[in-house]
Design brief:
With about 475 residues, this protein is α+β, with helices and mostly antiparallel strands. It is built from 9 helices and 26 strands. Helix 2 packs across helix 4.
């Protein structure tokens, strides 16, 4: 082949490639994102009510566990002229009792006691004392008012009666001699000891702080609501409220509530924001009986881009022999709009830049991009390189895949949470029950780093204690 023919062949090949080629390179002007700033958004706090009920038999169990055998001992007679040892003889019983139309706790304590009591004085440095030792064996009945103080069940106990199983006695010349007539007037010597011991035992057995903080720690550890959408729910407590403790029938009732922020984040598992040292219990007179969860579904543009890329996998756009496939999707924020960058291969190679406004479809529960159009300069390039792609039909088909579903994964998250609301037992003897209503969409907020969808969920939650060990 001559050089002339070789040059003509090369020229013809170039002309054919430029006019009838199956692939054309486009280079559109990229709409740069707004300057990055910290991720901040307006989140309405949620309120979780936790009506707690504890059966008196569980308080009884805990009190018996703490008070066993020798329950009080005072071996120093020099401070108040009394030495005392008190033993529990049989299990303590605790039940509800009404007094002056008020609900109170009645505690029955079988006991025996040895009390040494000295009478005397010191004159001119000489101690003259007479010490007597008394023996008790009876049943003490105590009545307690109930309250809540510093995370603990607080009781104010008063000894009401003391019934003798055997007549009180004292040792005289090695023999036990009944001295009921002496003992009954001196009950006041040890009644305050017993009252205080009962109050201390109940307070220790019913210290809610460790259990509440442990439960909050678990609640506030982010957990995955959807593996497919890589979504996580995070609860950040702000304050904890509690009403006064009440007795009703055979249970102790306590209304507690947690004010918190709820977030759904997309991507890797986020860190917990729970800080036990900042949790304060506040007293209130009334707490709403419903859970109100205002959840911020936070989807960063990076993670949303990954999921939208999956939406385009395996799809072709075009007609006849003119087709393109989307290889990668990237989205960002620009002056109140969303920019969607589509890396395409096929009849045209390059990046298409689309812009639109995120909207919510109540019927399909999806976020989509309304009024989607080619971004500035891109359309002019398309008009010159491939007019068919600039047509509305192709753009409409692309728009159908430009959807990013946030709400369905929260619906799935709702189903994932249901097992935690059906007799769920986070620890022995503690049971959680509740229900959740349908998810209500609130609004969308765009930031420079993420799309924020705000939703609202109502429901109820109750916690009961039955058989606490």
């Amino acid at each position: 082949m001559t050089k002339k023919h070789s040059f003509l062949s090369l020229l013809l090949l170039i002309l054919l490639q430029s006019s009838c080629a199956t692939s054309t390179k486009i280079a559109a002007l990229k709409p740069e994102p707004d300057d990055a700033s910290p991720l901040t958004y307006d989140n309405t706090p949620s309120f979780i009510n936790l009506p707690i009920s504890i059966k008196l038999k569980d308080i009884e169990y805990q009190t018996n566990t703490l008070l066993n055998g020798l329950i009080y001992e005072d071996n120093d007679i020099t401070d108040d002229d009394i030495e005392m040892k008190i033993w529990k003889l049989a299990p303590i019983t605790i039940e509800n009792a009404k007094e002056n139309d008020a609900e109170k706790i009645k505690t029955v304590l079988p006991l025996k006691a040895v009390v040494k009591y000295r009478i005397g004085t010191e004159k001119l440095g000489v101690a003259i004392y007479n010490t007597k030792e008394f023996y008790f064996n009876g049943t003490v009945t105590l009545i307690s008012e109930v309250g809540l103080s510093n995370w603990k069940l607080n009781t104010k106990t008063v000894l009401k009666t003391l019934e003798w199983n055997e007549s009180p006695s004292m040792m005289v010349f090695g023999k036990s001699v009944p001295v009921t007539y002496l003992i009954n007037p001196t009950i006041k010597l040890f009644r305050s000891k017993i009252e205080r011991k009962i109050d201390e035992a109940i307070a220790k057995s019913m210290d809610f702080k460790p259990n509440v903080l442990e439960a909050l720690d678990k609640i506030c550890t982010p957990f995955q609501t959807s593996e497919a959408y890589e979504s996580w729910l995070r609860v950040v407590p702000i304050e904890i409220y509690s009403t006064a403790a009440k007795l009703k029938n055979d249970s102790f009732l306590l209304e507690m509530g947690v004010k918190c922020n709820m977030e759904t984040l997309i991507g890797q598992k986020p860190e917990s924001k729970f800080d036990a040292s900042k949790i304060v219990l506040k007293a209130v007179t009334k707490i709403p009986n419903k859970v109100t969860a205002n959840i911020a579904a936070v989807s960063t543009y990076e993670e949303a881009s990954k999921i939208m890329t999956k939406n385009f996998a395996g799809q072709e756009f075009g007609s006849g022999s003119k087709k393109i496939t989307v290889q990668k999707v990237a989205i960002w924020h620009k002056e109140g709009k969303m920019i969607i960058a589509l890396d395409v291969l096929g009849t045209i190679n390059g990046t298409l830049y689309l812009s639109g406004f995120p909207q919510y479809n109540e019927l399909t529960k999806e976020l989509f991009f309304d009024k989607l159009d080619y971004a500035l300069d891109t359309k002019n390039k398309l008009m010159r390189t491939a007019n068919w792609l600039a047509q509305g039909l192709i753009l409409k088909k692309i728009q159908e895949s430009c959807r990013y579903s946030i709400i369905p994964n929260l619906e799935e998250g709702k189903q994932n949470m249901m097992p935690y609301l059906k007799n769920y037992s986070p620890m022995a003897g503690v049971f959680v029950n509740g229900k959740m209503d349908d998810i209500q969409f609130q609004k969308i907020q765009l930031t420079n780093k993420a799309i924020i969808a705000f939703i609202k969920v109502n429901g109820t939650v109750s916690v009961s204690v039955d058989g606490l060990k």
